[in-house]
Amino acid sequence: MTMAQDKSLANQLALVTGASRGIGAATAEALAARGAHVVLTARTADGMEVVEQRIFDAGGAATIAPLDLTQNDAIAKLAAAIAERWQALDVLVLNAATLGTLGAVPAIDPKEMAHVLTLNVSAQAALIAAFDPLLRRAGAGKVIALTSSVGRNPRAYWGLYGASKAALETLVGAYGDEVAAISRVRTAILDPGATRTTMRARAYPGEDPASVKEPAVVAERIAAMAEAGFEDGHRERVG
Q1: DSSP-assigned letter for residue 236
Q2: pLDDT per residue over 89-130, tens digit each?
Q3: CATH of 13-237 given 2.60.120.230, 3.90.1150.10, 3.40.50.720, 3.20.20.70
Q4: Is the pLDDT of residue 214 over 70?
């Protein structure tokens, strides 16, 4: 299979977190299919190498960058390395997240809460801070953050994960407001809805995976947003 002839994102740079599998991997491939050079990040290289090879085999361009998002120094170092090689970052997809244990709020383990909030919130703030200069240098920098319906609509036993997504939405929305009038950077919040991912399988172990959409459906929507652009503060859910 070869990449689509549409190269609407040619000469653009995109960075996708959590790109070793699921929605992140599919998004990296969809962006590459439109001509973007995609930087894939995830904690381990194995899965990313497979995704990178698929992109190469289809005629696309990608670079892998193993990265532990809980290490803020690592995020800053990655941003510095990217700035040495490229002039700007056109698309930042904040996809990486951890589910944590589903359970009642009184039963939340403080150590696990700290870990979930570090990855789902603090690391996202660090990514925005580290790549803000590169996003501002882009012709029209775009930040697309993936959320969940439980971030806005609390659900029993989803308190920890939902709280982390609510915080993410607030951070991204505030950043968008801060830069909208002084740059061409725009932010969007995307709820992928029910999607066939490892996280979904953990949350709904009895669900038939074939009953929910494939990650590629969400990835195509993200790539289309990166291509067409959007108003700041844009929100949508992929049905």
Answers
A1: E
A2: 999 999 999 999 999 999 999 999 999 999 999 999 999 999
A3: 3.40.50.720
A4: yes
